[in-house]
Each structure stands twice: as C-alpha cells, then as structure tokens.
C-alpha cells in the first residue's frame, strides 16, 4: 500500500539484523555520547568544550562514515555537522535527516542516576539526551555506519544535519542557508517530534504512530509594569507586582479558544476511531455530531489540551529590589504555543483584550507562526516511506496518522528547502516518558534504541525507491 508494495524496493535489501557484537557496540556508543555534557544553558551559553569533544567522539565511534569516499562531512557554525551522502542516481531528489546533539540542563537532584552518567540499569540507558535527542544523532550515524560496513551504496542522495543549539532555538539557519546557496531542494525532511504514543488516551490500549506534519507556532511575550518606587511603609493601593500579577492571572484563567473543529486532530481521531471499544468508536466516527463533546473531553487533560488550543504558559516573573522598597518595575514572560488554526497576530490581539490594562506594556521577544502543513496523501513520498517503515519495524502498530507537534523543532528553519517536513521519532512514548523529556529520569531501553537504529537502517534503504507512491483505494 502507499508505496505500491515490494516491487518498488531495491532488489537487494540488506537485512536489518545485527550481530551480538554490533548490538553491544551500538549501546556503548550511545552511553559514551550521553556522558558528554553538551548542555545548552541559555542564549549564547553553550558548552563549547563538550560540543568539541562530541565532534571528536562521533569520529571515533563511526570511523567508516568518516572515511567513506561518497560521504562528505562538514562542520558548520563550529559545532554542527552536515553529512552529504552521495547517491548513485542523480535523478532522485535528495532528502535530509535531522537531529541535535545539544541537551537541556540536568541538575543531579531527583535523578535515579546521575544525568550524564549514561549508566545502564534494568535494560535502560539513563541520562539527559537519551530521548531528546542524542538517541537520534547516534542512531542515524550508527545505521549509516552499519550500512556502509555492509558495502551499501545509496541510490538516492541524502543529507544528515546535526545541529548543536536546537535547545536555544539556534543555528540550523546556517546549514539551511548553505544548502540553499548550493541550490539544494529536498524531497522531504525527517526530524524529531512525535512518537508512537502509548497510554495518552484513556480506553485506548493500543499504541498508535503520529507523524507530525506541522508544528505549533510560538510567542515569547514580556509584560512589564512600571510604577513609582517609594518607601514600603506607606504603599500605594497597587504596586507594579500587583498589577502584573493580576494581568498574568487573567491570562492563565482565560484559556485561548478551543480550535478543535478546525484542526488536524479531527482527522487523527477519525483514523483512530475503530481502535476504540463501543461507544467511543461510534462517537469518534461521528464528530459532526459529537465534536463539541469530544473537544470538551480532550481539553480536560493538560497534554491533549495542547492539541486543541494555543497554550499559555507563565514561565518567568521578575520584580523587586529590596524588602522595603516599592518595586519600580515588574516583568513576566509568557510562552504561548500557537495553534495551527491561528496566527501570532490573532493571539496577540486576544491577549491584549484579556489583559485589558494599559498600564501593562507588551514586548514581543520572539514570535513564529505555525508551520505549513506537509502533505500526507498517497503521493507524499516522505510520509509514505515513514509509514512503510513503521509497518515493517513495528508490525503491532495498526494506526499511522498525521498530527501536530506541540513543540518546535529545528526543521522549521528548513522551509526554504522543502514543503514536506515530517517530525517523527521511531520510539514508543508514554505519559511518564513524555514528562522525562526536559524533566528528570530521561531514559531509553536498550531494545528501543536498537529498534531505532533498525528503523533508520531500513528507512534509508526504503528511500532508494525510484517510483512515486501510488494511490490505494482503502485503508484497513
Ligand atoms: C491524538 C492524541 C495524541 C496524544 C498527544 C500526546 C502528545 C505527545 C507529545 C509528543 C512529544 C512532543 C515533543 C516535542 C519535541 C519538541 C522539541 C523541543 O522541545 N523543542 C523546543 C525548541 C525551543 C524553542 C524555543 C526556545 C528553545 C527551544 C521547544 O521548546 O519547543
Ligand atoms: Zn529535541
Ligand atoms: Zn528538547
């Protein structure tokens, strides 16, 4: 289905089977990568020593990638890496795999094992970056290393872009600009983002794969209130802190509108419908009737709520200079994630109306509109290749559906190179592991990591297809 079946694949698929020695080597390579604290602390605050060490490290664990004549390696912006893997058939449009080597900070508190230990315990490799996103950096290079060791020569060229500052909204622009200057246009891009989701929806026991075909926009908005400072023994009726606190509280208490009806989520739920027991299957198959009910249920859970509206997160608050001084200035930063059915401008208008206090100043620190929706139809090569590989590597997963990524990814810097951007990690994710991303006790099972390598190993080979995806009449 989709890609038209076996006849579209290369005659000699290299089996995705790895020896015991290779399996040990691949998990040890990931552990070593976790051990290098490539932390992005804040704008312009990166651990350059660790990033340089990481560059040396990948050279040492993937020697074949670095010595193969048709794989070109370039260091971009000092610590990012771009690999160009030259295919044998120039008529096939290239694609690109993305991942990032930097991680968010991880103070030791609360972790079962130190976050940069890369320790293996109970079948899991523990540490910051095991899910976000050194697993992908290492799995992509590992899969390529293993393919090259088996004398694989791709037909379709591809790029691997490994950013070093994704966590501070960084410099993928440099790679993107370089490729644009070289006249590169890509068939598609695959980046981090969504997963095979397990346990996010009550009553749905079966896992389902969501390939994100768009991502939400984002606004970082600073609200500021200035008042005259003075002696705290004779305070005014309202201080800058009180005015600002009331404004941000109004924002927190007034959620942005529920956009369920206009979003991709409706499509996703319709695809999931028949996996649910009665009566949920009937309800989800008839959203024209039950839409309002379903959208109310979805917004009750804080994770699924993020799928139906622009979210409002109060993330920073600063005020005050001394215990007995009326504060001259109070500042708060609010991080909005903009629903794909809205624009930054629409959200800012709503915010002004909710705050409704002209003593509160607005400073937009950064803003990006939601990303365009990539195709997911039967002709969409990247989407169909992902789908085909999911079916092969995860045969137990019955549903593969398009969806929205609630976070932002480096792929947003590449819209100049392609209209087909897919955000998908070939890993299971449950609500607990979701909490560990940017949280504590991030870990990946050894088995899941091996499966991620297997997925990429098969995906690269599947991408050598030279035929357009063909339509099929019905889904099972
Ligand atoms: C049909 C029902 C589905 C159930 C939904 C379950 C949702 C599952 C969540 C999937 C995980 C989402 C992980 C998103 C990865 C985004 C990566 C990231 O964290 N990016 C940063 C980028 C950034 C932006 C601005 C400044 C610094 C960094 C982010 O904050 O978005
Ligand atoms: Zn990430
Ligand atoms: Zn992250």
UniProtKB/TrEMBL annotation:
One of its GO terms (molecular function) is peptidase activity. Gene3D superfamilies: 1.10.150.900, 3.30.70.360, Zn peptidases (3.40.630.10). It is an enzyme of class 3 (hydrolase). It comes from the Eukaryota. It catalyses: (9Z)-octadecenoate + glycine = N-(9Z-octadecenoyl)glycine + H2O; N-(5Z,8Z,11Z,14Z-eicosatetraenoyl)-L-serine + H2O = (5Z,8Z,11Z,14Z)-eicosatetraenoate + L-serine; an N-acyl-L-amino acid + H2O = an L-alpha-amino acid + a carboxylate; L-phenylalanine + (9Z)-octadecenoate = N-(9Z-octadecenoyl)-L-phenylalanine + H2O. GO terms for cellular component: extracellular space. Belongs to the peptidase M20A family. This is N-fatty-acyl-amino acid synthase/hydrolase PM20D1. It comes from Panthera leo. The gene is PM20D1.
């Amino acid at each position: 289905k989709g890609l038209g079946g076996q006849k579209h694949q290369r005659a000699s698929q290299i089996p995705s089977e790895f020896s015991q020695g290779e399996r040990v080597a691949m998990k040890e390579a990931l552990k070593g990568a976790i051990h290098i604290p490539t932390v992005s602390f804040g704008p312009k605050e990166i651990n350059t020593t660790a990033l340089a060490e990481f560059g040396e490290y990948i050279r040492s664990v993937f020697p074949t990638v670095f010595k193969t004549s048709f794989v070109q390696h370039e260091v971009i912006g000092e610590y990012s890496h771009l690999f160009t893997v030259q295919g044998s058939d120039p008529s096939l449009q290239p694609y690109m795999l993305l991942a990032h080597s930097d991680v968010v900070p991880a103070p030791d508190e609360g972790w079962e094992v130190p976050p940069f230990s890369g320790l293996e315990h109970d079948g899991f490799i523990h540490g910051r970056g095991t899910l976000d996103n050194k697993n992908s950096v290492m799995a992509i290079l590992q899969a390529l290393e293993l393919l090259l060791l088996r004398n694989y020569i791709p037909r379709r060229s591809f790029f691997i872009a490994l950013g070093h500052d994704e966590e501070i909204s960084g410099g993928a622009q440099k790679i993107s600009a370089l490729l644009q200057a070289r006249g590169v246009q890509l068939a598609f891009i695959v980046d981090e983002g969504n997963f095979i989701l397990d346990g996010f929806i009550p009553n749905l026991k079966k896992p389902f794969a969501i390939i994100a075909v768009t991502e939400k926009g984002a606004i970082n908005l600073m609200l500021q209130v200035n008042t005259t400072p003075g002696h705290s023994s004779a305070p005014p009726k309202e201080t800058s802190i009180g005015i600002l606190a009331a404004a941000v509280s109004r924002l927190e208490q007034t959620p942005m509108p529920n956009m369920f009806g206009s979003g991709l989520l409706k499509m996703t739920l319709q695809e999931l419908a028949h996996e649910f027991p009665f009566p949920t299957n009937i309800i989800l198959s008839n959203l024209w009737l039950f839409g309002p009910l379903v959208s109310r249920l979805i917004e009750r859970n804080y994770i699924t709520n993020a799928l139906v509206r622009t979210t409002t997160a109060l993330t920073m608050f600063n005020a005050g200079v001394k215990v007995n001084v009326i504060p001259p200035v109070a500042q708060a930063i609010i991080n909005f994630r903009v629903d794909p059915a809205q624009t930054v401008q629409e959200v800012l208008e709503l915010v002004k109306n909710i705050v409704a206090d002209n003593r509160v100043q607005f400073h937009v620190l950064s803003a990006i509109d939601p990303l365009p929706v990539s195709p997911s139809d039967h002709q969409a090569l990247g989407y169909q290749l992902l789908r085909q590989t999911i079916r092969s590597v995860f045969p137990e997963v019955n549903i593969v559906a398009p969806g929205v990524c609630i976070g932002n990814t480096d792929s947003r810097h590449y819209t100049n190179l392609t209209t087909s951007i897919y955000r998908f990690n070939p890993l299971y994710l449950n609500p607990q592991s979701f909490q560990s991303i940017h949280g504590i006790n991030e870990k990946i099972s050894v088995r899941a990591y091996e499966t991620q390598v297997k997925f990429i190993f098969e995906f690269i080979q599947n991408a050598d297809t030279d035929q357009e995806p063909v339509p099929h009449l019905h889904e099972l």
